[in-house]
Amino acid sequence: MLAALLQVILPVVIVAAVGMLLARNFRLDPDTIGKINLYGLTAPLAFDSLMKTKVTLSEGLVLGGGLLLVTALAAVVAWLATFRSARGTQRGVVGAVILGNNGNFGLPIALLALGQAGLDQAMILFLFSLVVMFTVGPILMGSGGGLLAGLKNFAKLPVTWAMALAAILRLLGWQLPVGVTRGIELLAGAAVPMVLLALGVQLAQSRRLHLTRPVLTAVALRVVGVPLLAVGVARLLQMDALSTSSLVLASAMPTAVNAFMLAREYGSDPETAASAVALSTVLSIATLAFVISVIPASVV
């Protein structure tokens, strides 16, 4: 566990801490930084990873299906755990539990913990998490647009088109010109440190923690309950060591900042969601170190 803290978690904390220091000393706009990451860097990273990945279609579908199953089970557990809470609070808690930070936290940790093969699988899981975030997320938080509106939003994301283009090129056996490929690789290389800087900026600008019962419930389920569900799902689907590690690691990520943004947008107790984001991120330093120390040694 100490090795996991020093070799995997510490590098992530250092880069995020730089982001926090920058946010404390300069006026930074997290929305702008988020757009740079989502629209300018994540898509090249996804394209580059998919062009080079050794993950097969069947493996990708099993990984994605596993994540969706874990998400569905976690939603049921969170809903039952907050059955007596106000409807808005209940929605906020469920959102905080099922919407994990598989982007600016999950991708760097997967790379450091599981290597390039782990990053490739983390990108697949990230794509499926985006589907959940932009379709189920708004509906859960109270959007009246329904599933169709969520799918339209997902279809507009550059990462969706980047992965679709990479899949087509791989099926046809084509390659982009060397100059274009190198440009994409440069952008992809900037994605991991940039998302960590963005995480630090977001944490520095977080509101004060409110340690209410819904917040503690959401955080406990997110950092402990969801990884345990992932272990069970991985066994149910008979995943290999790397896929099991990738799914459990992705499920152990803290609550995504977008859970707060969606809760604020649709009025589903944003205070609870904001506190869940901050507290789960801090606690996940220890829980992720534990998870990394116990995942199958053959893939580390």
From TrEMBL:
> Looking at the keywords, is Transmembrane helix present?
yes
Keywords in alphabetical order: Cell membrane, Membrane, Transmembrane, Transmembrane helix, Transport
Domain of life of the organism encoding this protein = Bacteria
The main location class comes to: membrane
User: InterPro entries, from UniProt?
Assistant: Mem_transp_PIN-like, Na+/solute_symporter_sf
Give the bilayer topology: Multi-pass membrane protein
Its subcellular locations are: Cell membrane
Q: Which GO terms describe its cellular component?
A: plasma membrane
Q: Membrane-spanning residues where?
A: 60-81, 93-115, 121-142, 154-174, 186-204, 216-237, 243-263, 275-299
Q: Name one GO biological process term.
A: transmembrane transport
Coiled-coil stretches, from where to where? none
PANTHER family attached to this UniProt entry:
AUXIN EFFLUX CARRIER FAMILY PROTEIN (PTHR36838), SLR1864 PROTEIN (PTHR36838:SF1)
Protein family (similarity comment):
Belongs to the auxin efflux carrier (TC 2.A.69) family.
Stated name of the protein: AEC family transporter
